[in-house]
Design goal:
With 501 residues, this protein is of the alpha/beta class. 36% of the residues lie in helices and 15% in strands. It has helices at residues 2-15, 36-39, 43-53, 69-75, 104-113, 160-170, 174-182, 190-193, 242-245, 253-259, 280-289, 306-314, 329-334, 341-353, 372-385, 414-427, 439-450, 453-465, 469-477; strands spanning 26-32, 58-64, 93-97, 130-134, 151-153, 187-188, 222-226, 228-229, 249-250, 266-270, 293-296, 319-325, 358-365, 391-397, 432-436. It binds iron/sulfur cluster.
Length: 501
Amino acid sequence: MAHHARDIIQQRRSRERGAILKSAPLQVALTYPSPYNVGMSSLGFQTIYRELNGREDTVAERAFLPDDIAQAQQDRDPVLTYESLRPIGDFAVVALSVAYENELAGVIQVLELAGIPALASERDPRRHPFILMGGPLTFSNPTPLALFADAVIMGEAEDVIHTVMDTLGTTQTHAQRLDALAAIVHVWVPTRHNETLAAIAKCERLPAFSQILTPDTELADMFLIESERGCSRSCTYCVMRRSTNGGMRLTPADDILALVPEGAKKVGLVGAAVSDHPKIVDIVNTLADRGLGVGLSSLRPDRLTDPFVAALKRGGYRTLTTAMDGPSARLRMQLERRAKVEHLERCADLARAHAMKTLKLYLMIGLPSETDEDIEECITFVTALSKRTSLALGIAPFVSKRNTPLDKHPWAGIKVVEGRLERLRKGLRGRADVRPTSARWAWVEYVLAQGGAREGLAVHHAVRLGNRFADYVTAFEAIGITEQSKRPRRALGVLRDESTP
Ligand code: SF4
């Protein structure tokens, strides 16, 4: 059945444009802990692929978590790279990009499927690859990775990755590597630093852009380009806010337009605050003039004006998606969001005026100090808004993240979140389509966002048990965390028992 995995890879490869085939002494399996369609939509993943392959001494080949893990486990499929169909266990380095907390399960699964022990303490450096990690999770709290990673690059990795590769290429023993990597400012080496993280790196080499185009993702054949990086705003729950992430850095409009390759049909403008680019309307219009479809990764409601929505319509928009953030005006203030009632009303009018099918609004519930009154206000407001245009609400439970002002806020509780969702659903029946994400998995995310090595180890346990939600409940209970203990203890240092208070 291993043939099946090969067939899928070969089929996908035959439809890709831009894959890099080369040979070099330092071999890296750049592995994404989610399936192909997710990994290939990650601009960070594509950028590191280009950076690594741009080095004379290095070749990077891609691998992904299989689409159907249970099947892959049953068939004992190896995890193969897309470029040369070699098992990732044969590479000197496996580099993993981790986007968010709940992807830790994918990290464990992909390594173990490949025959590489997920726990660093169970690996033999003479036989197993060096495990390097990085990715968006490092902006908030990567400490749950402590027992799995040999080293972690913190923050924007385009520059640091070269120092790391130079070090890996020139050191001999595993211990020497760890010592040398631990001396690099933006590299966190858990066995050397314990849970004290290294500083987050910032890179000024904008923009990141797609290396490989493929029809096999949700963003099919879309050329992704970073129109800005970071954000100038200060929303209190967000790790991308200006104080954490070095502020907003723009890609000049001409550079964006010049980088779009011949043959692209769609262009995705990526960034934390794309609609804050001062030239955004011109950029979208110019791309539409060239007959290209356009997608933006984020639209702030206070930025949406008539010419902007007209440009988006020309670029192929049929659904206008923006953020309502919190259920009530009071909570939106608390989040330091600039979205006001009048902005959201204007968005609804613009959606209608430009014949959009739907206005989709994202918001969080389970926010600190939220009560049923806030939910009632949401129902009243959205009901009124639904008279202006067709509406959908994308609702996610609030999860408190480190490196934000709302860090350490307790979890609202699965029952509370589900109760409020039910209230919204009932109150808005026939008026707005309510599409929530899971409250249960948000709790898992919360435990990891606030936890450390010990919580990471519990995920290892849960994966062993079957990776269902009930398995996480069991695994967390075993370390004294229940959903009722709303405030999990900060990591107590599996790695440094002596420091436990
Ligand atoms: S939520 Fe969006 S607008 Fe607010 S700080 Fe984060 S990236 Fe910026």
